[in-house]
Amino acid sequence: MKAAIPIYDICSLTQRQDDLLISRFASYLKSHRNLHLAHKHSFYHLVFFTKGDGSQTIDFQQVSVKPFQIYFMIPGQVHKWAFEGEVDGYIINFSVPFFQSFLLKANYLEEFPFFTGIVDDSVIDIPESAQAQVINLFEQLICETEEPKPLADDMVRALLLQLFITVARTGIATVNKAIPHYNYTLLRSFQKLIEKNYTALRLPKEYAELLYITPNHLNALCNDVLGMSAGEVIRNRIALEAKRLLINNDLTVLEIANQLNFTDNSYFTKFFKKQAGTTPEEFRKITNSHE
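^ that's the sequence the OP posted. Answer follows.
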């Protein structure tokens, strides 16, 4: 059994003190064959496939790999690949601070639906009408890194923002298209609050209070947009973190329960089994057997 899931930063992949890695995917894959095993990133990560088949797993959710598909990942998500045949495209890794000195709005990236950490919103099939434009942007990005010119980093940032906006315009998940802007903003605020407070706040009424709305309003919003209650959204985030921690065999189940602020081990086991359909020990055993 492996001791702990690897956590990669950009430096460990490039052997340089960089905030950015841009590459054609086939050559990157050849240099990093070990990345087919489950691992985490400390950086933002995206891949646009131009050729490929198989599957990948993001936060324990499996999705098919196919040409003209792009996926986005935020720091901390768990990832592994299971490709079939020849795979190519483009890969971009960039650090959390990469845009902070460039944009006045430090959390600008969080406005894009594919940088929420929700897998269903972060794997996007690029329509034929936008494929040439997206490929052209990736080629410009490759060019800027292969032949650096003055202000190259700022040009990369500008091209990346153009890419994000282009993808957002053409590939925003269908669930978000019909949502009124106010409701979408409210839902994103709820998700951000969960991200910061899920170990301490467990009840929808606690989040509703922070959002200055009623628990019924919050529940109705989640049911309308996500098809689940506000309580389920909170519990799903706790269960996801439990899964991320369970694949690290250096941590005992009791230590994980304590990290997630459960009062005792049996309560954590009961919670996890209800959410995941298996006990923490069984989940750990199954996950390790697939590595």
